[in-house]
Every structure is written in structure tokens, then in C-alpha cells.
Amino acid sequence: MSIEVNNETETEVDEAEFAALARYVLDAMRVHPQSELSILFVDTDVMTELHVRWMDEPGPTDVLSFPMDELRPGRDGEVSGPGQLGDVVLCPEVAAQQAVTAGHSTAEEMLLLTTHGILHLLGYDHAEPEEEKEMFALQRKLLLTFLAGR
After folding, report:
1. In what order do the strands lie in the sheet with 84-90?
2. Most CB within 10 Å of its CB: which of 9, 22, 85, 97?
3. Annotated binding residue at 126?
4. 116 annotated as a binding-site residue
5. How far apart are the C-alpha atoms of 83 and 5, rounded to whole Å?
6. DSSP string computed for 92-140
């Protein structure tokens, strides 16, 4: 699995941990081992530009996902086909603000957001209540099992 992590901010990021999380999530979701994923950390100015351009919403957001080959999780014990999963873009400054509200560390918030972004790349959404329930339960399970294994 090819996972590229780039930090374009002044915030210290443990790139190896985010790559390990992504690998864990993709393995758990039975994504083909030859698939590719990019994780990018950007500052608020860049995230604001992306949020306005792609979502037509003002200000920065915490995470954006840009799917490429529209890969889906493997089903019934089989893995998905290989391909480019896409890009997950995170804003550590927004994550830090959310972490205070949530009562945990910025690193934990960014790990949560990374998991969230990957699930979006795999076709999960939370626009409807049932979708939200499914996605957030899966996100929680994946993150907690990753953290328990560290």
C-alpha cells in the first residue's frame, strides 16, 4: 500500500503514525494492498481556499476528501481492486480548536479526522441520519482498535 503523508504546516505531525493509521484503516476495510492514498496537512489559508473552491462554503474546515478512482471497501472476505483512493486534506489549526471542545488532544482529533476522511474516500457519508450512524460507529471502532494496538 502506498501512503504518502505531507505536512505543509508549522504544526508538528507524526507522519509515521498517520501512515500507520491509514494502513490500518485500509487493511480493515479490505482495500487492495496496491492502492494509493495521500494525506496532506495544510494551514488555514490553504484550507479556506479549498473549502470555498470545492464546497462553496466560507472559511476553513477540518478535513476534506478528494476521491480519485472511487474505490469501495472489499466485501465478503474479498479485497477491492487496486487504484488511487485519493487525497485527505487536514487543517491542524481547525483540529486544535475542535480538540479543545471535544476534550482530547489535537493529535487524537487529527487521527479521528484522518479516519473520517478515508471513510469518505471509500464512499461513506453522513448526510442522512442512518448514514451518519453507520459512518460514525465505524469511524469510532476503527480508531479505537487502532489506538488500542499502539
Report:
1. 2-7, 36-41, 84-90, 63-67
2. 85
3. yes
4. yes
5. 17
6. HHHHHHHHHHHTS-HHHHHHHHHHHHHHHHTT---SSHHHHHHHHHHHH
Spatial separation of the C-alpha atoms in residues 137 and 141, rounded to whole Å: 6
Residues 41-63: tens digit of each pLDDT: 999 999 999 999 999 999 999 99
Instruction: Go through the domains of the chain in sequence order and give each one's CATH number.
Output: 2-148 (3.40.390.30)
Q: Is 120 annotated as a binding residue?
A: yes
What pTM does this model have?
0.95
DSSP letter at 33? T
What does the pLDDT look like over 25-35, one tens digit per residue? 999 999 999 99
